[in-house]
């Protein structure tokens, strides 16, 4: 695997606490140690990146992912695991094809596309990244999204799980909460931004979300204050995944009724159920802040 290390180092000098890196695919399989630990197979297919100790259990009482010996992420010391569902194209004849992924801008060479992971203390465009954040603790994990959401209202409790219809590799505007309704010349990017206010106590919670909260008002980007129930501000973790949908842009392949043909591995055709999972390996973050 070859990466553009000079570009990466420019972003991650010792003072800067914005880190952005690509992770190649580790595996595509039906395992979900966060939502359905120990269940083989999990209810739907995921693409997983990160440390190689990933397995069906990831017992929080063990030092997993600390048992990893290597990772698919660009930082060889990041043994965290990050995962999302996989995307399919439904052809007119009713067959499904798994949509391949593309590497993000500047990361050509990442195997099978994988995903780009960000940790930031302030909005992406703020190069100073000066705000104080609390480090994630060993055993920390979280989930964001709702696999059962099928309407705008159901998705509304999540502020920043989006799609970008990409006309070219640099497209970043007009994010939508539903799948793009039109053909996207380059592909579709899914962006998942996790909440940034922690209760300060729990490393996880039954729904894997309750220990975290969005800011009380505004957003992470507008530096909205954390609520009293979740007073501890953390970094914003964000994933970007680019789906190579352009290969399916022939009119003859799209549904005759003009609807969009993409569907998540768990059957969602609306896109409102966009979701992501994160199992943290804190030593990596400490060495980069
Ligand atoms: C996952 O790995 C841990 C640590 O190596 C091990 O104890 C556990 O049995 C594994 N789980 C499965 C389902 O393989
Ligand atoms: C179904 O349609 C897809 C897309 O046009 C095509 O690639 C595939 O071979 C077809 N499969 C069958 C069984 O006809």
Automatic annotation (TrEMBL):
This protein's record includes keyword Signal: yes
InterPro entries: DUF1996 (IPR018535)
Transmembrane parts of this sequence: none
Segments forming domain DUF1996: 32-279
Signal peptide region: 1-17
Keywords (A to Z) from UniProt: Signal
Keyword Signal: yes
Protein name: DUF1996 domain-containing protein
Organism placement in taxonomy: Eukaryota, Fungi, Dikarya, Ascomycota, Pezizomycotina
